[in-house]
Specification:
Blueprint (H helix, E strand, L loop, with lengths): L10 E3 L7 E5 L10 E6 L3 H13 L2 E3 L9 E3 L10 E8 L2 E8 L4 E7 L2 H11 L1
Antiparallel strand pairs: 1-2, 2-3, 3-8, 4-6, 5-6, 6-7, 7-8
């Protein structure tokens, strides 16, 4: 469930990360890849939602793209009328962040970088 460009070489198990399992990752090698990432696997929908809300509460919210609300829902291109999860953008400690859920897999992911627009575009293509 890790985003493209992440693997055991640039991610490590985070035993204190919460959920059933958590990984912390460093710089993604893909163009405009995030400087950092976290992925947390939960056991059910309520815990996934709680993990997302906890992450969002730490952000100064900003629109992910012009005119979009945040948080918002996202979907796969193959099923545009079915929500696949939630997504939000914001900043914390002078870093741009994108946080999302993959509801089917009970996963919360968060990537961080320096530029909100390019980070969001990277997530849309690779997250």
């Amino acid at each position: 469930m890790l985003s493209k460009g992440y693997n055991p070489a640039n991610c490590r198990l985070d035993p204190g990360g919460g959920g059933l399992a958590a990984y912390k990752c460093g710089q993604n090698p893909l163009p405009n890849g995030p400087a950092s990432a976290e992925y947390i696997l939960f056991g059910n929908s309520a815990d996934t939602s709680g993990g997302f809300q906890g992450g969002v509460s730490d952000l100064a919210m900003t629109p992910c793209s012009s005119g979009d609300p945040t948080p918002d829902t996202w979907h796969y291109e193959s099923s545009p009328n079915k929500s696949a999860g939630a997504v939000a953008c914001g900043t914390t400690n002078n870093a741009a962040m994108v946080i999302w859920t993959n509801d089917q897999n009970h996963m919360v992911g968060m990537v961080g970088g320096t530029d909100q627009a390019s980070l969001y575009q990277w997530w849309k293509s690779n997250g």
